[in-house]
């Protein structure tokens, strides 16, 4: 076992029910950043809402390898009203989720599953809307999703983002009742992608109103009030000191150059510039301490920073949109660091390496990868004899290397109690120094550059110089 965190730390129940309707929620996710935002949303509902209270139990997908955690998960699902899952792409664990939830699917008031393996997506149930025939159905939505997936290496999540934008055209092919439930599913996805405690609070209230309490005969619970989702840009530029996200690189650079807190050196367009690639979910959930630390460290070293993000899993789009000067189309950055932990195009289940390679070749800048701990807490990783979790090695080191990524370094740990990222300052400094050196090396005159070549030779004195099994060493 690589993680020994008990799911009980995420269990929240109202201290005083006060005659309110109790709704039980169970969630299982890959991304720990949702833990803190969901917990905050539930605490606000339990403290302030006059009619409903929520008891919530949460699991990170890797924790289901523990027999004890899996048994607790099964017990929680047995009595749940609402089931939520997201990014369940690890095959053996996806099967465990299906085995635990499928027997209770018909009893659940609502089950909402966001991009995951097809067998997990089939658990979706929102009134008359279902994905039980996903991969087989000839419905308008199923055909739309299949076509979009075939065209997009970023996979299911980007296809759903496109569906959000074209939903009115799709819904006209559905009966009224199914159209309403399909609309509620896509509305749920907007809440989820929004990720803030406020969005998740309204997400839970919407599910309660539409599917848990709709048949309730309690007058106070006839209708719950909730706000529409706050929608964030699909992609853009973020900075921890800016009150807004930028969707135009000119606007960002104008703001950056007008900052009063930076030196004249950082305002100089010729200063080294580092591009950062970020996950939007960390920004909207407020789990951004490691991003803030990286920006601060790079600026303290004298580098300008352009931190870009995407809402889906195709990070080549913000790279193409924001790392070039809009008029001359020349690159603005001297080096790039991806902090997402994913391939440049695609998530855990599917990648489009040719598209990523094309974008990176066109940019022609050093491309580093730094990764947050996902499946282990900081303490578990530090105490482990094997180090990084093998699945994370595959997903977030080996796969990004197929894009051309270099120097994979862990930049942040994870708090076992809150799920939030913890910046590891010594590693933040190491990554920033490496990026700064790559940026300076690019600008260095070729006559001043020195090249060192390390040649494999083992065993020594056996004529093995420059040889290595299955490796193209030259």
UniProtKB/TrEMBL annotation:
Domain named CobN/magnesium chelatase: residues: 190-474
This enzyme's EC code(s): 6.6.1.1
Domain called Magnesium chelatase subunit H N-terminal: residue spans: 24-186
One of the GO biological process terms: chlorophyll biosynthetic process
A Pfam family per the record: DUF3479
Gene Ontology MF terms: ATP binding; magnesium chelatase activity
Superkingdom to which the source organism belongs: Bacteria
Catalysed reaction, written as an equation: protoporphyrin IX + Mg(2+) + ATP + H2O = Mg-protoporphyrin IX + ADP + phosphate + 3 H(+)
Record keywords, A-Z: ATP-binding, Chlorophyll biosynthesis, Ligase, Nucleotide-binding, Photosynthesis
Pathway: Porphyrin-containing compound metabolism
Family note: Belongs to the Mg-chelatase subunit H family.
Cross-referenced PANTHER family: MAGNESIUM-CHELATASE SUBUNIT CHLH, CHLOROPLASTIC (PTHR44119:SF1)
Identification of the protein by name: magnesium chelatase
Source species of the chain: Fischerella thermalis CCMEE 5318
Phylogenetic classification of the source organism: Bacteria, Bacillati, Cyanobacteriota, Cyanophyceae, Nostocales
């Amino acid at each position: 076992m690589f993680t020994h965190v008990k799911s009980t730390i995420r269990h929240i129940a109202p201290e005083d029910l006060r005659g309110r309707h109790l709704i039980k929620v169970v969630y299982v996710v890959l991304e720990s950043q949702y833990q803190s935002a969901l917990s905050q949303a539930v605490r606000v509902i339990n403290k302030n809402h006059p009619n409903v209270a929520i008891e919530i139990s949460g699991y990170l997908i890797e924790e289901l390898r523990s027999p004890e955690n899996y048994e607790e998960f099964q017990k929680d699902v047995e009595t749940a009203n609402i089931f939520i899952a997201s990014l369940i792409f690890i095959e053996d664990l996806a099967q465990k989720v299906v085995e635990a939830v499928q027997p209770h699917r018909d009893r659940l008031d609502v089950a909402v599953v966001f991009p995951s393996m097809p067998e997990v997506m089939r658990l979706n149930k929102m009134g008359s809307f279902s994905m039980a025939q996903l991969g087989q159905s000839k419905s308008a939505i199923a055909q739309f999703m299949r076509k979009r997936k075939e065209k997009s290496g970023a996979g299911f999540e980007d296809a759903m983002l496109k569906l959000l934008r074209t939903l009115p055209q799709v819904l006209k092919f559905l009966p009224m009742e199914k159209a309403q439930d399909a609309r509620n599913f896509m509305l749920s996805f907007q809440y989820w992608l929004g990720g803030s405690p406020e969005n998740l609070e309204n997400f839970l209230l919407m599910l309660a109103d539409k599917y848990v309490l709709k048949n309730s005969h309690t007058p106070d619970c006839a209708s719950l009030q909730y706000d529409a989702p706050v929608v964030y840009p699909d992609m853009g530029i973020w900075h921890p000191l800016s009150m807004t996200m930028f969707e135009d690189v000119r606007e960002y650079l104008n703001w950056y150059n007008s900052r009063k807190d930076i030196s004249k050196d950082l305002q100089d367009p010729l200063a080294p510039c580092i591009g950062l690639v970020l996950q939007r979910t960390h920004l909207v959930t407020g789990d951004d301490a490691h991003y803030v630390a990286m920006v601060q460290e790079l600026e303290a070293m004298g580098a300008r920073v352009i931190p870009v993000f995407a809402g889906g899993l195709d990070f080549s789009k913000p790279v193409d949109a924001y790392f070039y000067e809009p008029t001359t189309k020349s690159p603005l950055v001297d080096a790039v660091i991806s902090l997402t932990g994913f391939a440049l195009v695609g998530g855990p289940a599917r990648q489009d390496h040719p598209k990523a390679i094309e974008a990176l070749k066109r940019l022609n800048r050093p491309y580093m990868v730094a990764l947050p701990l996902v499946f282990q807490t900081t303490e578990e990783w530090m105490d482990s004899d094997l180090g990084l979790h093998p699945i994370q090695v595959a997903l977030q080191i080996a796969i990004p290397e197929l894009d051309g990524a270099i120097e994979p370094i862990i930049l942040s740990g994870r708090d076992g109690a809150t799920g939030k990222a913890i910046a590891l300052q010594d590693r933040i400094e190491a990554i920033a120094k490496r990026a700064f050196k790559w940026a300076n090396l690019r600008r260095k005159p070729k006559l001043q550059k020195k090249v060192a070549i390390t040649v494999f030779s083992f065993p020594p004195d056996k004529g093995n110089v420059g040889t290595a099994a299955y490796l193209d060493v030259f």
